[in-house]
Amino acid sequence: MRTALKLAVMSFCMLIAANTQAQIPNLAKCTRSANLLACIDQDGNAYSVNTVGSTIYLRGFEAIGKRYWAQTSSRYGQLTFFTGIASDGEAWVGYNQRVGWTTINRFSSSGGSSGKFTCSRLSGC
After folding, report:
1. Which of 5, 6, 43, 103 has its CA 20 to 30 A from that of 64?
2. Residues 42-63 as b or e (16 or more Cβ within 10 Å = b)
3. What CATH number has the domain spanning 3-120?
4. 115 or 35: which carries more pLDDT confidence?
């Protein structure tokens, strides 16, 4: 699976799992306002998260592949659908479903990647 897709899906899962930098200090350095979170990690990857109502806008830069990406997520109760695109033309779709403290994640991309993984607030992804 492409790095940008992994970063986008994992970034979204981190939001769902409610991890903060205080709990995971080596993950990324972040700046935050009321609706915007902007982060950069020690490898030069960067992303921002903007929330407007039940819609989440993710944008980022993948340092290794030197590509930009954007993802939009819309929440409907316990179900969140997302779509994304990268500067090299790769596109992806998927959904997250919350069941208690667990999140079930499914996705597929135009690059041929697809998968399913589960995240828990207690055990991670």
Report:
1. 103
2. eeebbbbbeeeeeebebbbbbe
3. 2.40.128
4. 115
Domain borders along the chain are 3-120
Q: What is the pLDDT of residues 70-96, one digit of tens each?
A: 999 999 999 999 999 999 999 999 999
Number of residues that this document lists for the chain = 125
Q: Identify any residues that bridge with 52 across adjacent strands, giving them in sequence order.
A: 55
Query: How far is 83 from 94, CA to CA, in rounded Å?
Result: 7
Number of helices and strands (H, E) in the chain? 1, 9
Q: How far apart are the first and last CA of the chain?
A: 16
How far apart CA 97 and CA 102 sit, in angstroms, is 8
pTM for this model (two decimals): 0.71
Rounded to whole angstroms, the Cα distance separating 56 from 52 reads: 6
